[in-house]
Amino acid sequence: MTSGFAALRERVGTQRLVALGILLTCVVVYANSWTNDFVLDDRGIIRDNPSIKGLHKIPALFQQDYWYPELISGLYRPLVNTTYALNFAVGGLDTRGYHVVNIALHGLVSILVWVMARRVFGDPWIAGGAGFLFAAHAIHTEAVANIVGRAEILAALFFLLVFLSYLKSGEVQGGRRAFIYGGSLLALLAGLLCKETAATSLGAIGLYDVVYTRPRGESMWRRITGAVAENWRRYAGYIAVVGVYIGIRIWALGWRQTLPPLPHMDNPIGILDPHWRILSALKVGLIYLWKQIFPLTLSYDYSYNAIPSITSLADPMAWAVLAAWAAIIGLVIWSYRAWPDLFFSLGLYLITFALVSNVFVVIGTIMGERLVYLPSMAFCFVAVLLLQRVLERLGEPRARRAFSAAVALLVVLHGARAMVRNLDWSTKDRLFLVDWETQPESSKTTNNAASTLFGMGEYEKALVLFHKAIEIEPHYWMPYRTAGFSYTALGEDLKAMEMYDLAMRYGAEDAKLLNNLGFIMVDHGIEVDRGVGLLERAVEKRPKNYDFLDSLGWGYYRQGRLEEARDTLRRSLELNGTSPSAPSRRQHLAEIEEAILEKRARERVRSDLGID
């Protein structure tokens, strides 16, 4: 077997064999995700998005918000949406094609991580360990198994192309140098059109120059100024590309981009005073690190109140966080002179994590595992460097064998965890139920699990969780709304009305809620005029919903507006006369028409008697 492997290595080449092994690792780990359904943001951005359904629509994607037409998010990722349009052109809404692309892209990124490590550290064992660990790391499941995680993968891909092209351009001369450097600039622009985090490639380039191209005896300040003086022309090209990207973004979304308010539920630390926000964000950063080391509990959601904020120095967690970060900064400072490879890797992690950390810029979520897809590259560098340093005491060749065995064990453990986690992403309902067990203190995960139970007809069980979600965050409108649906399904209209009213008080305004609340009010004779107003708003939002028209017609009937009621019911039946609700709607129409006949009969009697 050994001789056969040696013959294969000689025939194919060691480097190609390693690259193939990394790619196969990605395929094996994520093969069970390729039939996953559209989950979470996949639905709005891909499944229900008319903008990607036609190659002729691709130019318009470069003039639209990432979430167009569903909402205004302030995000601009036209190149990512372009890949979805290409996927749709090939396979429609067959999710397998989208997942195959994600797996292939992750494989390519993993290979480039290996190439980068080999180029920077010059050690094939370190490079191979980093590449294989990145390929299998379990925290990447949200980026790979969830289709819209593609934005993270593409940003990482172009980040690596920018970095590697920059290094290559410094090794050649003449026209070839200009060609490779120009390709690096184009890669940066492409990365920015996928996600803003690609901009951190500039920091990675500067860090590399400071660590590896300057004399080791220089101070940090001399290294920085020297690197800038030597490479400022090349740096200026990247800065110009960032300027071009900003110009394109302004052209597409306008000078004054109207952004939605920062959602307190999704990012509760975003509304804190800056010092508490930063301290809480540093706490979240440690949670990211812990999950990269031990990814046993993973979740699609960390919103309120899964991660309690730090708002007082009386909280022992505040001092624990400060102590932990002091230790990390101490390690960075020590490694500056003692271990340049570790210093570069730690610095790379901090640079790539900075934009999603909530320390410098407040983003739309407190935490998301997909957000450390790019930083985990540096995490893998740190992990294998430390592992090699610990095992090198064994001496050669035992150290190499122990290193290989340890990396293989890590790859197997992470790969197995990722394969199990992929199954959680197979459907929305499974994800909601599994992750509620992981994050029972999150109002959103509790509400989503309850909604899943509601969809399964488990109304009583759903209500228990809805009330728990309300207990966690009384101002979150979603559990009130769906609790109202549960009470409606159970025939408890008055309790449902109470839930609907509270949902509206805290911000709900969707058509189904308006319809349900309005119908209960008119059907029970409670504030009929207000109920009709709600029903009119529901129909205004969804004018072709025949059930909403039925509710509105019944409201008009309760107000005595019989002709309007009849016309509205007739329009409802014209839109759809075969649905399960059709018999009930016909009965409503019959009652209304009977009332109209009775009214006309009374009017004739009064006319015959000469009564006005």
Your description of this structure?
With 612 residues, the chain is mainly alpha-helical. It has 3 domains: 14-424, no CATH class; 442-506, Serine Threonine Protein Phosphatase 5, Tetratricopeptide repeat (Alpha Horseshoe); 509-612, Serine Threonine Protein Phosphatase 5, Tetratricopeptide repeat. The protein is 71% helix and 0% strand. The protein is built from 27 helices and no strands. It has helices spanning 2-12, 14-30, 41-47, 58-61, 78-91, 95-121, 124-136, 141-145, 150-169, 174-192, 200-212, 220-253, 274-293, 316-338, 340-354, 375-391, 398-424, 428-438, 443-455, 459-472, 477-489, 493-505, 511-523, 528-541, 546-559, 562-575, 582-608. The longest helix is centred in the middle third of the chain and has 34 residues, at 220-253. The mean pLDDT is 92.
Distance between the termini: 107 Å
Number of domains: 3
Q: Classify the secondary structure makeup into a structural class.
A: mainly alpha
The overall pLDDT, averaged over residues, is 92
The ordered string of helix (H) and strand (E) elements is HHHHHHHHHHHHHHHHHHHHHHHHHHH
The low-confidence parts are none
What composes the largest sheet?
A: none
Number of strands: 0
Percent in strands? under 5%
Helix content: over 70%
Gyration radius, rounded: 30 Å
Shape: elongated
* Count of individual helical segments: 27
